Each structure stands twice: as C-alpha cells, then as structure tokens.
Amino acid sequence: MIPTIAILAAVAMLAQDILGTILTMAEAKEKAALSGALDTVGWFAAILTTTWSVTALQGHNMSEKVWVLILVSVANFAGSYTGVLIGKKLINKVKVPAPSI
Predict the structure, then answer these.
(1) How confident is the model over 12-45, as pLDDT tens digits?
(2) 0.85 exceeded by the pTM?
(3) Residue 101 maps to a domain
(4) By CB count within 10 A, which of 2, 3, 53, 95 is most buried?
C-alpha cells in the first residue's frame, strides 16, 4: 500500500512544478502580476513538498522513503510536462496589465 505522505508529497510536487513552469513562461512574456501570483502560490506548494518529503525521508520506514522518491520523481516530470501544456494555452490568453513605472 502506498503511504499517504508519499501521495501528499507527490501531489504537492505536481502542483509546484506546474506552477513553476507556468511562472517561468509568464516571466518570459513579461507578465509581472501573473508571475507574482504564481510565485506566491508556488512557494506554498514548495513548502508542502519539502515538509512532507523531508518528514518521510527522515523517518525509519524504508518503504515510505522509496515511495516518496518514486512518486515525487514521477510528479516532477509530470508537473513540468503538464505545466508546458497548460502554459502554452494560458500565457497568451491571459491579459494582465503591465505595472506602470
């Protein structure tokens, strides 16, 4: 059975990578407000990923550690891949006014 903490860490990693990939695309298109919002939400996902992963990896359950490594690695790839697919559609459609300086 897959440990809950491994699933939680993987879901958080998936979210973190999707947000991070779209963030990078938004920054490349100079969409500052969208970049800031994605960075803020992505930071929360990153903290959850780190917390759950480190908690499992510091434990004494080898099966749990292996599941975390496998699921988070798969989520890492899937998140980047999905982030590109979503970002390609989203970035050009979102109209965010540039801040005036």
Answers:
(1) 999 999 999 999 999 998 888 889 999 999 999 9
(2) yes
(3) no
(4) 53
